[in-house]
């Protein structure tokens, strides 16, 4: 592969990264299963890490890798948690880490364009300096990139009002598997056939690599109103959310924690066993107080008891502070999160089915949930599980059993099996359930048409299927 390295170096110069430590740091994302396998000594390093500085360099890198038949693993901030990035010894990791910064800002039309490798928090701060906001606040905002948001169809904590990534992306630029450059039309809407941007929104680096993203912005809202209510049970809280959302109220933050998660987060503010619901209301002048009053009326009618607003303050202060997988594993604990979604009618059954299924796996010590994204016709449930297998050698099999139990239970209820973390490797075996066999065949056909040699992120989304 010396010719490959020589050609890449000719294009990238110092943008070609070959040190062992540097390759190891970019060889995977933040998937718990990868961390367990790494601890067991299973971590393959890529041939090199290619970090193009712009779209043209990205195109050249892709052309070189394609000519050599080398696998290409796209990587942004590495914050993904489903195995979307996992290098092999015969691959090149293509990193967007040098494709950073705001390329343009148009406050009149509320548009801002960024290099795909721009850190999400930095992007938000740049537009906030102009009195604007992207409105997308994933928990990983300080680690993830805007290109990564697109690749995984990410969703932020303010999505109930501002929408998910697909709702704030205005246009994008990407390099296809043959090195050609795709630019979507910069228009607020189009009726010119299928929306080709959707091949990259959730494509997880299998259909091409996003190099630039333009967001449709909003003016920064006035300071909001924070509220909290606790309920005797989780289902009563779900029904309260449904009735708040139904007439058109859209609090940016709507989060209901079940009894165990509420006790973990808010134990000083509610009776043990109760479910805590928190709101943030904000928007144009005058909206937040009206919305808060409507939410209070609904919550009280469903038995909700008001809690102090500092409950929400405490949540905002600690919302993104979570232990690392390494910290948990060092204590003999494995854990993960699984986010699925369904309609309002099936949410209680989904909660019961998944928590019971995970709890039945030997070694599991907790299976809990909260809802964090609400829509007119349903909501997500964000499950967390933790397990302490008796033997260290059982960690990976226990982890796999927990995921299998959750996916099978959710599928039996009829839920969507991925809400905002993406598919990666952890969910790919359930894609036929999610899309149907016909839908999966359609996706494979598109993949074959764009990437006939299966070089872009093989093993992700639809597995290793090649013609």
Short description:
This protein has 467 residues and is an alpha+beta fold. Helices cover 35% and strands 21% of the residues.
Description:
It contains 16 helices and 19 strands. It is α+β, with helices and mostly antiparallel strands and about 475 residues long. The protein has 4 domains: about 100 residues, Uridine Diphospho-n-acetylenolpyruvylglucosamine Reductase, domain 2 (2-Layer Sandwich); about 120 residues, Uridine Diphospho-n-acetylenolpyruvylglucosamine Reductase, domain 3 (2-Layer Sandwich), CATH 3.30.465; about 90 residues, 2-Layer Sandwich (Alpha-Beta Plaits); about 90 residues, 2-Layer Sandwich (GMP Synthetase, Chain A, domain 3). Strands 12, 13, 14, 15, 16, 17, 18 and 19 form an 8-stranded antiparallel sheet that branches. A 5-stranded antiparallel sheet has the order 5-6-10-8-9. A 4-stranded mixed sheet has the order 1-2-4-3. Helix 1 packs antiparallel against helix 4. It is globular, with a radius of gyration of 22 Å. The model has no long low-confidence stretch (mean pLDDT about 95).
Descriptive key words:
5-stranded antiparallel sheet, globular, 8-stranded antiparallel sheet, 4 domains, alpha+beta, 467 residues, 16 helices, Uridine Diphospho-n-acetylenolpyruvylglucosamine Reductase, domain 2, Alpha-Beta Plaits
Rounded to an integer in angstroms, the radius of gyration calculated over CA atoms is 22 Å
CATH architecture of the largest domain: 2-Layer Sandwich
Largest sheet: 8 strands, antiparallel
Q: Give the % helix.
A: 25-40%
Alpha-beta content class: alpha+beta
| Count of discrete alpha- or pi-helical segments spanning 4 or more residues | 16
Report, as a whole number of angstroms, the end-to-end distance.
25 Å
């Amino acid at each position: 592969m010396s010719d490959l390295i020589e050609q890449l170096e000719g294009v990238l110069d110092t943008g070609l990264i070959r040190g062992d430590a540097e390759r190891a740091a970019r060889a995977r994302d933040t998937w718990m299963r990868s961390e367990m396998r790494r601890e067991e000594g299973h971590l393959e390093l890529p041939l090199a890490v290619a970090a193009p500085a712009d779209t043209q360099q990205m195109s050249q890198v892709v052309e070189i890798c394609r000519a050599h038949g080398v696998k290409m693993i796209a990587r942004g901030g590495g914050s993904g948690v489903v195995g979307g990035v996992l290098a092999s010894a015969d691959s090149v990791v293509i990193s967007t880490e040098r494709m950073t910064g705001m390329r343009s800002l148009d406050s009149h039309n509320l548009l801002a364009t960024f290099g795909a490798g721009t850190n999400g928090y930095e992007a938000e701060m740049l537009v906030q300096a102009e009195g604007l906001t992207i409105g997308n606040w994933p928990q990983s905002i300080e680690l993830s990139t805007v290109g990564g948001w697109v690749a995984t169809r990410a969703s932020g904590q303010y999505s109930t009002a501002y929408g998910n990534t697909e709702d704030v992306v205005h246009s994008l630029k990407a390099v296809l598997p043959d090195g050609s450059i795709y630019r979507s039309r910069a228009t607020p809407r189009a009726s010119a056939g299928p929306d080709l941007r959707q091949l990259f929104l959730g494509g997880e680096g299998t259909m091409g690599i996003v190099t630039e993203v333009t967001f449709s912005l909003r003016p920064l809202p006035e300071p909001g109103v924070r509220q909290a209510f606790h309920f005797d049970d989780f289902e009563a809280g779900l029904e309260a959310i449904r009735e708040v959302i139904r007439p058109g109220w859209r609090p940016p933050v709507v989060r209901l924690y079940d009894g165990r998660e509420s006790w973990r987060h808010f134990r000083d503010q509610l009776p043990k066993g109760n479910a805590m619901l928190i709101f943030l209301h904000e928007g144009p002048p005058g909206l937040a107080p009206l919305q808060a009053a409507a939410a209070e009326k609904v919550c009280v009618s469903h038995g909700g008891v008001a809690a102090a607003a500092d409950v929400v303050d405490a949540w905002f202060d600690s919302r993104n502070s979570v232990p690392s997988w390494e910290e948990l594993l060092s204590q003999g604990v494995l854990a993960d999160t699984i986010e699925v979604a369904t309609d309002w009618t099936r949410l209680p059954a989904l909660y019961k089915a998944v928590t019971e299924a995970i709890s039945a796996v030997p070694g599991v010590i907790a299976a809990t949930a909260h809802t964090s994204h609400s829509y007119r016709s349903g909501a997500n449930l964000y499950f967390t599980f933790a397990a302490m297998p008796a033997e260290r050698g059982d960690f990976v099999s226990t982890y796999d059993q927990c995921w299998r139990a959750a996916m099978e239970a959710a599928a039996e209820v009829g839920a969507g099996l991925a809400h905002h973390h993406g598919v990666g490797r952890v969910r790919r075996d359930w894609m036929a359930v999610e899309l149907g066999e016909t839908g999966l065949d359609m996706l494979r056909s598109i993949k074959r048409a764009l990437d006939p040699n299966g070089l872009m992120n093989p093993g992700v989304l639809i597995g290793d299927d090649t013609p």
